[in-house]
UniProtKB/TrEMBL annotation:
Name this polypeptide is given: DUF7660 domain-containing protein
Domain spans labelled DUF7660: 6-74
Pfam families, alphabetized: DUF7660
Length: 74
């Protein structure tokens, strides 16, 4: 199981692989992705509550989840 910074690096590797495979993202431009990333990170506690998951104690895990979620967050 990945921990700490490695979780974020793994999430970024996943996103890069998806981009290279031409995956369809709702936030497919850098501008919309960064906007969604900022919005999601700003309300991440609600995202965890809404999905029935506890907020991780590890801030790196939260960032990794926000990076992954920014692909589709509105």
């Amino acid at each position: 199981m990945l921990r700490g910074r490695d979780q974020v690096l793994d999430a970024l590797d996943e996103l890069l692989a998806e981009l290279r495979a031409y995956a369809a993202w709702e936030n497919s431009t850098l501008e919309t992705f960064l906007d969604a990333f900022a919005a999601l990170l700003g309300s991440i506690e609600n995202a965890y509550v809404n999905s029935g998951r506890p907020v991780p104690d590890d801030a790196w895990a939260v960032v990794a989840d926000a990076v992954r979620g920014a692909r589709f967050y509105e």
